[in-house]
Structure formats: C-alpha cells, structure tokens
Design goal:
- By secondary structure, the protein is mostly helical.
- Helix 3 packs parallel to helix 6 and helix 5 runs antiparallel to helix 6.
- The protein is globular.
C-alpha cells in the first residue's frame, strides 16, 4: 500500500513539474524579451459584461476568443454576422464592444508583455464594424 502511495506521489510531482516547465517555456516563446509594463499608463477598469458574468464566460463562452493570441486570432479571422446576432441575443451591446475595444487598446499600450491584447482590440473593432 505504501509503495502505491509513493509511486502516485512521485508521478504527480513529475507531472506537475513537467506542466510548469511547459507553461514557462510557452510564455517565454510568446512574450518578447524586451517587453515591459508602462508605469505611466494606468490599467483601465474591467468593462461590463452581460449580467455581470465572469470574464471567461463572456470572452470564451460568448465572444469565443478562446485563450491566448492563437485563439483570439482564430476568432478575428472567422467572426461574422451570425456571431453578431448571437452576441445580441446573449445580452451583448455595441457599447460593451466599444468598452472592450478601448480596454484592449489601452492594455496594448500599457503592457507590451500581453500578446493577446492587440488581437482582441482588433477583434472588438471588427465586431463593431459588423454590428449593424
């Protein structure tokens, strides 16, 4: 019984270390080496979401931007009028889209270490252009 416990503990430890190393390597590959947060630019308050839902539910669930720059780019490339109707039916307003666009434009200027912000800003701009 003790051998089984030790084996499970060791395997869990190696799995966690491997995952952490992978996450660190991935983050290093995405972020430029010379990135920085500009202390002179304040972070904007988080914009509103329909019914004050959590950001993951709004971004990944409704807007569909997934995670990371790849997910945001995929949605930027594929967003269409059908998506706009879906957003409207789930309580998203054009004002919210503009708020999020402004938020991510500011985040792009404030934090060059965030590779997803400029793509999400472009996505919000495209959604706004398709709104009517």
């Amino acid at each position: 019984m003790m051998k089984k416990y030790i084996l499970v503990s060791v395997l869990t430890l190696f799995t966690a270390q491997s995952f952490a190393a992978t996450q660190t390597a991935t983050a290093t590959q995405i972020r430029p080496k010379d990135c920085a947060v500009n202390p002179d630019i304040e972070r904007n308050a988080r914009p509103s979401t329909p019914h004050n839902m959590p950001l993951p539910q709004f971004g990944q669930g409704i807007i569909g931007w997934a995670t990371g720059p790849e997910g945001a780019q995929h949605k930027l490339d594929s967003v269409n009028k059908t998506d706009i109707q879906n957003y409207k039916s789930q309580g998203v307003s054009l004002a919210m889209i503009h708020e999020w666009q402004t938020f991510y434009e500011n985040e792009t200027k404030r934090n060059s270490c965030n590779p997803t912000a400029p793509i999400r800003a472009q996505l919000m701009q495209k959604i706004a252009s398709l709104w009517n």
